[in-house]
Design brief:
Length: 335
């Protein structure tokens, strides 16, 4: 027997209310995560935590671990994943603004880097972190890049002239920098640079301290090598996503979340640096540091004019430096 009209209307209202109360099923996303230690590494672990947190933002994330960064980036470009975690150096191809954070000598210390990552979580910078379909959804510090040398007599930049330095073959800015200081660039990648150093094919590499143990760079240091205790570059991991594959506002929420995790990574970095055999550290005299800063500033200026670095990020990084050290000579220069 058909229901009376008033009961049918009431039933429709009840069904509508029930549907509205049901949880929204989020669309699925896949992240390609590069970590030298694969699914056992700290970077992968943080992305796993982010995936859990993202459920409250409407995300439904699955992770794929990669130990080869190049393959992770290529799979991302080919559409096999909706986002990827990679070094800032490689992420520069997707967003030059954030990719220019990893520029030579631009961030002197971890306090400066913390300022930068906090700024990237400011909604006012959101548009700068979007290029076409891509958005940078987080920046993670993995440590300062130091000069590892196989001979402690290479204790200043002038003595690097003629020496072989490993450079990533896909980042032409590195090759140009090495040539500018009179050294010889040798093509390598994340998976091969450590082997070239350990086997004596190159004399110098720039790497974060985690590579000392994870990539066994202590083998290349041997008895006569050393690590110059002077940050050449701050190396980051960057999460790049296809903006339209994620819920609206996901990128900002992710950047805010990642910024809150930064102290955790700084703690890991410092513990790793403390674990280096003290005999390998080479202290750079204070009298030399000003000269090194000038050289690196000239390199940044040249590489920005050449189109490798984003001038807006270079201006932002200068403001960060001058906020912390307003008496520095560069702060009086209008460039």
């Amino acid at each position: 027997m058909p229901l009376p009209i008033f009961l049918r209307a009431s039933l429709r209202r009840c069904l509508l209310a029930t549907v509205l109360l049901l949880p929204v099923v989020a669309s699925a996303q896949t992240l390609c995560v590069w970590d030298p230690l694969g699914a056992q590494g700290d970077a992968y672990g943080m992305m796993r935590d982010l995936a859990v947190q993202a459920r409250s933002w409407g995300g439904n994330i699955t992770l794929k671990a990669y130990t080869d960064e190049r393959i992770a980036a290529e799979d991302f470009k080919a559409g096999q994943c909706d986002g990827a975690l990679m070094t800032g150096l490689r992420a520069r191809q997707f967003n030059k603004f954030a990719g220019s954070i990893d520029s030579v000598g631009a961030i002197p210390g971890y306090s400066h880097l913390r300022d930068v990552i906090d700024l990237l979580a400011d909604p006012r910078l959101g548009n700068s972190l979007i290029t076409g379909p891509y958005e940078v959804a987080g920046v993670v510090p993995i440590g300062a890049g130091y000069f590892f040398v196989n001979d402690r007599r290479i204790n200043n930049i002038s003595k690097a002239a003629g020496k072989k330095i490993a450079v990533f073959d896909w980042d032409k800015s590195q090759e140009e920098m090495v040539r500018m200081v009179g050294a010889q660039p040798v093509a390598a990648d994340v998976t091969t640079f450590a082997g070239k150093f350990n086997n004596g094919q190159v004399d110098i590499v720039v790497a974060p301290i985690y590579a000392y143990q994870a990539m066994e760079l202590y083998k290349g240091l041997s008895r006569s090598g050393g690590i110059a205790r002077y940050p050449v570059i701050q190396i980051t991991l960057q999460l790049v996503i296809r903006k339209d594959a994620f819920p609206a506002g996901f990128g900002l929420k992710s950047r805010e979340y990642v910024a809150r995790q930064v102290p955790r990574f700084f703690s890991l970095i410092r513990n790793t640096e403390y674990g280096v055999d003290a005999k390998y550290w080479m202290n750079v005299p204070l009298s030399d540091r000003g000269g090194y800063a000038d050289i690196m500033r000239e390199l940044r200026t040249h590489l920005t004019k050449a189109g490798y670095y984003d001038p807006r990020m270079m201006a932002l990084l200068k403001r960060v430096r001058c906020k912390r050290e307003p008496a520095d000579a560069e702060c009086a220069i209008k460039d």
